[in-house]
Structures are given as C-alpha cells and as structure tokens.
C-alpha cells in the first residue's frame, strides 16, 4: 500500500486551495461574465452567491474530505455510506471533463504570452485569436504543452509538487494583478469602467434574474472549485488540528478578492479603449475568446512598448492562475487511482494526462466544441455534484458533519449548527433553483444558451 501524503504546512494547504479556486474561473471567466451580465448587477448577485451557496458548500466538501481522509470516491465508503459514492464520481468525472478544455484555454494563454513578447499579436489584435490561436494544429500542440506542465507538477506529489508550486503561484498572481489594476487606474476613460463595474443597478438584476442568477451562482461555484471533488481531495490530506471554518473563509475571501481584482483590471482596460460591452468584441454572449480579443484590442491603444510589457504581464498572470487550477483538477482523479489501486503517482499522472489531452482535442479544433464542453461541465456536472454534497452533508451526515467542522476550532457550536441548517434549507433551495434553470437551458433551449446535444448532431 502506497503511504498517503499530507500537506507539509497548513499554509501550503490554504495556498493550494486558493490556487485551485484562483484560476481561469477568476481571470478568464469572471470579468467577462460580469461585463456581459450587467456589470455591477452581476457582481452583487455573485457576492451573495459566494456567501449563501459557495462558502457553506465549500465547508461541506472539506468535512467529507477530512473526515474520510481518502479520495473523493472512496470517502463515502469509508464514511459508511457507499450508496452515496456516486457524488464523488460525478465530481471526479467533472474534473476530468473540465480539465480537457481548460487545458486548451491554457494553451491559448501560452500563445498570447509569446505573441505579446514577440509583438506579433499586436499586428492583428482583433483577428489573432480567431485566425491564429484558437483552433488548429498549433492549438493542439500548445494544449499538449500545457498538459505536460500540469502532469509534471502533479507527478512530483503533494508536498514537492502541488504545495511548492502554489506557494510561488498564488502570491505572484496577487502581486501582478495589483500592479495591473494600479496601471489600469491611470488610463483615461477608466472611470466609466469603475462606474459600470461598481455602481449596483438592482433593476438590471430584477429584469434579467432568470439569466443573471444562475450565471452568478455557477460562477461562484466554478471559481471556488466546488463540485469538482477537488476540495474533498485537498481536505483529505489535512490533519484534525486545522480549523476548517477559518481555512474555508480565508480561501473564499481570497478567491473573491482576486476575482474582483481581475475585474478592476479588465473592465477599465476595455472602457479606456472605448470597447463597447455587448458589442462586436465583447459580445452579449461573452464567449471563450472574449478576454483574449477584448484585452488585446484594448492594449493596442497603449503607447510604444507598453502594450507588449503589459500584455506579457497580464497573460503571464493568467497562465500562472490557469496552472494553479489545472493541477488541482488532475489531482482529484490521480488521488483516486493512487489510493485505491496503490499505483505510482508519476505514471498515473502521465497516463491520465494523456487521456485528458485526447479528450480535449475536439475543443482545440473547434470553438463550438469547447463552448459545448464548458456548458456541460458548468451547467450539468458541477451543480449536480454540489446538490448531492449539500443533501449528503446536511441530511445524511448531519451531526457528524457538525462534529467534524468543530475539530480544530474552539467553541463555535452555534455557528456550526447555523451552517448545518443553512445547508439543509437555504443552500439546498438555492442550488435546486440553479439546477432547475440549468436543466431548462440544457434540455429545452436548442436555439440558445447551452444544449445537451453536441455540435453537429
């Protein structure tokens, strides 16, 4: 039996969990989800979703992981509820599925780091993404490069790979985003971006609740890495003396801060460049390439070599964030095979990475396929996994969950019970609404939104 690894330090776990949360979900998805869903209106709903749904669900995954002290699928067997093991399976499959197209986006980021460094991207800023970077053999090759880096980090293990890498990655992301936000604030026209982003318009929320609410809830769960079995896996490497509540709050606040900070970079850049939200470059539907086309077009207005420098810093930051999340998605799957079948970590990571690469090839060859993979991952796998986690922790574990949450924490009995009943009522109701709206989108809207049938079928 392979000896199970643990985090070397509590800080290592917190940074790894923040790294998982602070990824493309925050820097690729969040600014443009915000921009195309009403700006500050979306931001307000998103913050409420993080507080009401995200944090309680995150703590639920922590409780399962640490109490079982094993991977996300086997955890339910160890807790004496094998009939619920399908929850972990949904999350692990969701991680595998998401990483396949996530890696393609990671390849795009590598392309843009090089493109800004060489200056070639500035020669055709509005068409570089669609005509050069998005699809084709080069996109497949860079998808492979991104997966190789991810596999290499995971193969090194928890302490020497994931923990060590995220101790560098997370502080770097924050420092670079702060620098970019300060720079964006100096640009003429940025003030209009701040007004759009930070002045709440509750009328917009009321008029578009059916689209804004599920989008914000999905973004909250995606950006916290809830529903992918990642946080169950990471918490399984924890000791009993760690405070899950304190760690969860730290992770959620840090993740939300980075998401909001990313918006303070991207949206002022767009407004400073007079790029219309909902226009040709940043369409009403957002789109996988929105951050690449929008930010690149915005940066072309900068003088001299500033565009190249800021472009390299911005997309370099995105690359670090993407890797910090991709390693967690792969680890969720690797841990299952290492735990259950006593397989060696390095060849297991390499084998799984190869399968993920092959699954991602359609996304590297077609934007329609990538959008479909993203839609299925975010609107099907993720909310279903969260729904069943909430049901399991709230109504099956019950008092056991409260006892586990209180481990490593002095007092907090009342707050623990408030958390449990919030899972049983408010969170459960909220996630049921989100699942219902998502299923309507998936199964009943073939001409708009996401749809369950793949492209061309």
Number of strands: 2
Summed up, the helix count is 19
- Molecular shape: globular
CATH top level? Mainly Alpha
Mean pLDDT rating:
87
Tally of distinct domains = 1
Order of helices and strands: HHHHHHHHHHHHHEEHHHHHH
Share of helical residues: over 70%
The N- and C-terminal alpha carbons lie at a distance of 46 Å
- Which stretches are low in confidence, meaning pLDDT under 50 for 5 or more residues running? 279-286
Backbone structural class: mainly alpha
- Which architecture would the CATH scheme give at its second level? Orthogonal Bundle
**Strands of the largest sheet, in order across it?**
1-2
| Major β-sheet annotation | 2 strands, parallel
Rg (CA only) = 21 Å
> What would the CATH topology be?
Hydantoin permease
The amount of beta strand, in percent, is under 5%
Describe the structure.
It comes from Halomarina salina. It is found in: Membrane. InterPro entries: Na/ntran_symport, SNS_sf, YocR/YhdH-like. This is Sodium-dependent transporter. The chain crosses the membrane at residues 7-28, 40-64, 84-104, 140-158, 170-192, 212-237, 249-271, 309-338, 350-370, 376-397, 418-440. The structure is a single chain. The longest helix has 36 residues, at 306-341. Strands 1-2 form a two-stranded parallel ribbon. Helix content is 76%, strand content 1%. It has one domain: Orthogonal Bundle (Hydantoin permease). The radius of gyration is 21 Å and the shape is globular. The chain has 457 residues and is an all-alpha fold. 56% of the residues are buried. The chain is built from 19 helices and two strands. The chain has helices at 10-21, 24-36, 40-68, 74-78, 86-118, 128-133, 137-155, 158-185, 190-198, 202-207, 209-223, 230-235, 244-272, 290-299, 306-341, 345-365, 367-397, 399-406, 413-444; strands spanning 277-278, 282-283. Helix 3 (40-68) packs across helix 19 (413-444), helix 5 (86-118) packs across helix 7 (137-155) and helix 11 (209-223) crosses helix 17 (367-397).
């Amino acid at each position: 039996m392979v000896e199970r690894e643990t985090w070397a330090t509590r800080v290592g776990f917190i940074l790894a969990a923040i790294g998982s949360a602070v990824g493309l979900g925050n820097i690729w998805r969040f600014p443009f989800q915000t921009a195309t869903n009403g700006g500050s209106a979306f931001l307000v709903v998103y913050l409420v979703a993080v507080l009401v749904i995200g944090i309680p669900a995150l703590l639920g995954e922590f409780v399962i992981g640490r109490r079982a002290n094993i991977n996300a699928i086997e955890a339910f067997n160890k807790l004496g509820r094998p009939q619920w093991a399908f929850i972990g399976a949904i999350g692990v499959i969701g991680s595998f599925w998401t990483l396949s197209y996530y890696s393609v986006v990671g390849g795009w980021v590598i392309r843009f780091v090089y493109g800004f460094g060489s200056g070639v991207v500035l020669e055709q800023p509005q068409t570089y993404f669609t005509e050069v970077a998005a699809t084709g053999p080069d996109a497949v090759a860079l998808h492979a490069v991104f997966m190789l880096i991810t596999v290499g980090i995971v193969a090194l293990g928890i302490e020497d790979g994931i923990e060590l890498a995220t101790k560098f990655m997370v502080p770097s992301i924050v420092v670079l985003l702060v620098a970019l936000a300060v720079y964006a604030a100096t640009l003429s026209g940025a003030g209009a971006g701040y007004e759009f982003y930070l002045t709440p318009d509750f009328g917009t929320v009321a008029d578009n609740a059916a689209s804004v609410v599920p989008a914000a809830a999905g973004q909250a769960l995606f950006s916290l890495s809830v529903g992918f079995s990642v946080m169950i896996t990471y918490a399984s490497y924890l000791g009993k003396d760690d405070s899950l509540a304190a760690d969860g709050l730290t992770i959620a606040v840090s993740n939300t801060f980075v998401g909001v900070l990313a918006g303070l970079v991207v949206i002022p850049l767009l407004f400073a460049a007079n790029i219309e939200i909902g226009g040709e470059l940043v369409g009403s539907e957002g789109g996988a390439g929105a951050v690449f086309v929008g930010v690149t077009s915005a940066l072309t207005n900068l003088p001299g070599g500033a565009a190249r420098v800021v472009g390299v810093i911005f997309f370099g930051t995105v690359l670090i964030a993407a890797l910090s999340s991709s390693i967690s998605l792969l680890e969720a799957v690797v841990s299952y095979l290492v735990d259950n079948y006593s397989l060696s970590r390095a060849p297991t990571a390499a084998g799984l990475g190869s399968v993920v690469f092959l699954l991602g090839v359609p996304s590297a060859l077609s934007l329609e396929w990538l959008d479909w993979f993203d839609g299925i991952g975010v609107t099907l796998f993720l909310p279903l996994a969260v729904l069943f986690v909430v049901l399991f922790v709230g109504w099956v574990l019950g008092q056991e969950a409260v006892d586990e949450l209180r481990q490593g924490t002095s007092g907090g009995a009342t707050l623990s019970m408030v958390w449990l009943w919030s899972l049983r009522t408010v969170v459960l109701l909220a996630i049921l609404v989100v699942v219902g709206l998502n299923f309507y989108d998936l199964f009943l809207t073939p001409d708009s939104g996401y749809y369950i049938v793949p492209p061309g079928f």
